[in-house]
Amino acid sequence: GGLGMMQLLRFTDTPVGSYDELAVLPGAFDTPVGEQGRRGKMKQNSRITAIWVSQKDTCWNGELVHFRGVGVNVGTRHLARFKFTPPDTSPSPSCPLKIEVFPEDPSATEPFFTATIQPMRWLPSFYFSSGWASYLGKDTSLAQPPLPKGDTPELCGTDQWKRSEPVLYGRNTRLVWIDMKQPPSESALQGDGDEEGDALLARNQKNENWWPGMKRWQIGLWFDNAALDLGEPEILG
Prior knowledge:
Blueprint lengths: L4 E7 L7 E7 L2 E9 L5 E5 L3 E4 L24 E8 L11 E7 L9 E7 L6 E4 L12 E3 L16 E4 L2 E13 L6 H4 L5 H12 L10 E8 L2 E3 L4 E3 L1
């Protein structure tokens, strides 16, 4: 349940330099530690369940190297290649922005994520802060479980649940249309009748808008020169 979203960010000023990031927050999940919710039930919080980045240094404990030097457990990060068309990433009503995310392997030619952003015509930009949700009684905090240890040094594990309240804000925010139609897989189009090809084709057809059940056209927010404050993490349990 809860509000689900995807976030595509282009960081320009962080302790590890600039990088691109795609994060998936499918909705609210039960948090088995910390205070209880209503009627003695588990409290629910948003959670990042998948995250891809363009730079290896950002993989240290998925934000162990954090703006305040304290990890917030935002999830194990996976390296990927990002492509923006046009490359200046400044969409206009007459020039949409296409984003493609590819596997880390340089030989991979098919993106696993594609989206095209088109600003809504005739609507001016405005100031927006995700912190306003609290005035509507909405809890936007993230509660992330301990991270498993990976096979490389930067993927060090953790053993604690952590909660934080990130706030994204900016003075130049616009409403945009997002086309989530995914291109057909080349492998599926070339299908040779084997089981693997058939399964790939079925998966491509089932999730034609990337996420199961997602409609093709979505409404989103575009931030120019925004700031992201991850907040001071709270250890739960």
